[in-house]
Design a protein that fits this description.
The protein has 495 residues and is α/β, with parallel strands linked by helices. It has a domain of 246 residues: Rossmann fold (3-Layer(aba) Sandwich), CATH 3.40.50. The strands form four sheets. It has a six-stranded mixed β-sheet with strand order 4-5-15-10-11-14, sandwiched between helices. Helix 1 crosses helix 6, helix 3 crosses helix 4 and helix 11 crosses helix 12. The longest helix has 20 residues. It is globular. 53% of the residues are buried. It binds pyridoxal-5'-phosphate. The site of pyridoxal-5'-phosphate (PLP) has 17 residues, from helix 12.
């Protein structure tokens, strides 16, 4: 059966999966959502016999119904290969009373690789299917990890260019170095004087600029998005929750049908939304635990039913979660509004004009799958140290936000359901914050001395992604004001 996608702001606007991937965002500014969430068409026992790629095909074929078997399998083969440093792709590590789903074994050592390794293949396949002649320009705002993962995925991909905007002072030193050393004739990296929300808003405005779109078309270009608003990112993220469940069953950690909880360190709400979709596909998931850092706009939303971005933007040591506008929440709002696009559009318009909105009691009642909490900086640091002291396992700062919130959840509820924590980055990506959490004495050490020390403490070899940048040359040094993003794009494209 063909699954179509519709805009969260206009249910009459329907497109195929490949068209939704090409467009990124709907013309009305809404996000594409599937017209229904398909149920898994295999049993969980069957899943235990599959490897990661087979699970990926099983899940993705139900969402991307206009891709042929051959096309989709080719995309999957090209994505989940030796770019990952483990055959398992997404291994589960049992530590400190939970299962850490390590999503950071790809090329750029953050979970964004799970989707961005496959997105370029989905996108170029979609372009072929739809007879697109223009070059595709990927425009991306990043809080650090998406940028590098997208650059790495799209570098030297025929028929594409990629432009990444990141907040100059809002990413970790390693994240910045990873981006500005990116090779590839079609890659462009720009720092903006502003925060992540400024970058994301700038990108959304460029996408929404019809006149600019026309000019682009005349010059043989068209935009697409590698941000997590693209369903081509969301769908591959559903896979690892299904995979994780099947591995727990395979390893006899859970019984058939036993529910698990999932904790996700959340920023733009993409990762946890994928878990929500997995649950709606029929995967036995109990609670979806949404973990925030000091930018706790989502915690407040789950607690009160009011989303309010009018607050100070706080820079934390989990920068990929420093976000006040969680774009993908719109997909959940639409869902709990009974797929009423008018109702959703009204709330999103309020968000745009006043910076906040409140949902109705009915909508709030539909949020019982979710639990939200947040971690303060000192709590996050303490959890990194405690888990290291107790088990020798070292987690990154984002994962530590999730671990902290998980502890709060258990304390509050006494719920002993087995729990998967999405481990979203390698500790090597945030070495300085991780190491100073373990011991303040590391504060004066150099970045790469810390890397070597982390390897010693954790007994985990330094990943390739880090070795590469030790000596890499800076290839990108453009900086612009937040309101100069459009001009910068024009300059880059020569139009
Ligand atoms: C992007 C990112 C997150 C947040 O994920 P969302 O899908 O935006 O909620 C969390 N941790 C890390 C390391 C990330 O890169």
């Amino acid at each position: 059966m063909e699954l179509l996608y519709k805009s969260t702001r206009n249910s009459d606007c329907k497109v195929t999966a490949s068209q939704a991937i090409l467009k990124g965002l709907a013309d009305d500014g809404g996000l594409f959502v599937p017209t229904f969430i398909p149920k898994l068409d295999v049993t969980v026992e069957e899943l235990t016999k599959m490897d990661y790629k087979e699970v990926a095909y099983t899940v993705m074929k139900q969402f991307l119904t206009d891709f042929t078997e051959e096309e989709l399998k080719k995309c999957i083969e090209n994505a989940y290969d030796s770019k990952f440093d483990t055959d398992e792709i997404a291994p589960l590590v049992k530590a400190d009373g939970a299962y850490y789903l390590e999503l950071f074994h790809g090329a750029t050592i953050a979970f964004k690789d799970m989707a961005l390794s496959i997105l370029p293949h989905l996108l170029t396949t979609a372009a072929k299917k739809n007879n697109v002649k223009n070059d595709i320009v990927i425009l991306t705002a990043t809080s650090g990890d998406t940028g590098k993962a997208a650059l790495s995925g799209f570098a030297d991909v025929q028929g594409t260019k990629i432009i990444v905007f990141y907040p100059k002072d809002g990413v970790s030193p390693i994240q910045e170095k990873q981006m500005v050393t990116q090779k590839g004739d079609n890659t462009y990296v720009v720092a903006i004087k502003g925060n992540f929300d400024d970058a994301q808003t700038g990108v959304k405005n460029i996408f929404g600029d019809k006149e600019f779109g026309k000019l682009m078309d005349e010059k043989g270009f068209q935009f697409s998005s590698a941000n997590s608003i693209n369903i081509g990112r969301l769908v591959p993220q559903i896979v690892y929750y299904v995979y994780a469940y099947s591995r727990l069953l395979l390893n006899e950690e859970i019984a058939l049908g036993e529910k698990i909880n999932v904790v996700v360190p959340t920023g733009n709400f993409g990762n946890i939304l994928a878990a929500f979709y997995a649950k709606n596909m029929g995967l036995p998931i109990g609670k979806l635990i949404c973990a925030s850092n000091d930018n706790k706009v989502l915690y407040d939303f789950f607690a009160t039913g009011t989303y309010d971005r009018n607050r100070e933007f706080i820079l934390t040591m989990s920068p990929s979660m420093d976000i006040l506008i969680s774009s993908n929440l719109e997909r959940l709002i639409y869902f709990i509004a009974g797929q009423d696009s008018e109702k959703n559009a009204k709330l999103m318009n309020e968000l745009k004009t006043t910076g906040k909105y409140s949902i109705t009691d009915d909508m709030k009642a539909a949020l019982t799958d979710f639990y939200g909490n947040y971690a303060k900086e000192a709590e996050t640091a303490k959890v990194i140290k405690d888990i290291y002291d107790n088990t020798g396992y070292i987690i990154d700062t984002h994962t530590a936000v999730a671990a902290t919130v998980y502890k709060k959840y258990v304390k509050e509820t006494g719920d002993t359901t087995k729990t998967v924590i999405a481990s979203t980055a390698s500790p090597y990506k945030f070495t300085r914050s991780v190491m100073t959490s373990i011991d303040e004495k590391y504060g004066t050490w150099g970045d790469f001395d810390l890397v070597d020390e982390l390897s010693k403490l954790s007994n985990v070899p330094v990943p390739n992604a880090i070795e590469e940048i030790r000596t890499a040359k800076v290839l990108h040094d453009t900086v612009c004001e937040a309101d100069e993003m459009k001009d910068t794009v024009k300059k880059i494209l020569g139009i």
